[in-house]
Amino acid sequence: MAEERCGSWFGFGFCGFGQALGSGRGRQVHSPEPLRAPGTDADAEVCGVRASWSYTAFLSRECLGPIPPGPAPTCPRLLLSWLRASAGAGQVHLSGSARGTAEGCRDAWASETLLVVLRDGRGPGPGAELQAWAPGSALCGEPLWVQTVVPEAQREDGAGDGTRAERLPLLPGACAYVSPLPPFYRPLAPELRARRLELGTEHALLLDEAGQVYSWGGGRHGQLGHGTLEAEPEPRLLEALQGLPMAEVAAGGWHSVCVSGAGELYTWGWGKYGQLGHGDTSSWDRPCRVEYFVDKQLQATAVSCGPWNTYVYAVQREKS
Predict the structure, then answer these.
(1) How far, in Å, CA of 279 to CA of 271, rounded?
(2) For residue 148, what pLDDT band results from cuts at 50, 70 and 90?
(3) What is the phi/psi pair of residue 168, to 5°?
(4) Cβ–Cβ under 8 Å, residues 266 and 288
(5) What is the pTM of this model?
(6) Residue 169 phi, psi dihedral angles, 5° rounding
């Protein structure tokens, strides 16, 4: 078995509300900078970043619940998968215009109107709860609404293909997703073989089982990546990346990001705040590789976007 390689989170783009993003100097970061997550212990590992416009939610490994058998991975990305597969979960910490901390969290999804948390259930039965909170609530009191999510293995109807969603908005089993608009819990079409679904402000990205990327929705900032500013009413294959299998995708407000199987980062769409990571504020209507990680011999393994910023987890490349 290959030795685990631990790395660091990097951030770039808008940070005008004091949310952690690189050095945090000024209101914009145009090139990737190592992330500093305030409010977490010095020895805590950040295993996920979920960003909105004015605040960021950090998922960390502190305050774990019951520990499953065997050693825990030390790499944050592997640790996040380990947490979801276990009976326990971690902690979510908010930074920026919204503040607060909650324990027992498996995942989170942040927007300006709702903070949706996938959390250990409070009742005696199995499964987790999908909880929606007002971002300004500091995660105190009672959530706005709650829905129990039954793990795929425990579904009585046998629906689904047994696949596991890696992160919200796809829910465990990849049979449904969480949306910012009512109804908040929506089923996926049964023929849709989605590994990842990402929702921007006006567009959507889908990563399928073969590693191909589809985009649809509004395209006025080039966020669809098809070389035009036209909208697409139905999912359209991103031809610029065809033949280059992708491992991760993420949608910002009006920009898009993906990571190839080889760990190269590609960004496109609106770049006014440096959220594309190319060292400037240019916008692109086709995928463009971020050279910072190539120059630093870093391999991207996870990515997350806020409306105007981007977070990337990267490890040192193995020497050939």
Answers:
(1) 10
(2) confident
(3) -65, 150
(4) yes
(5) 0.77
(6) -85, -5
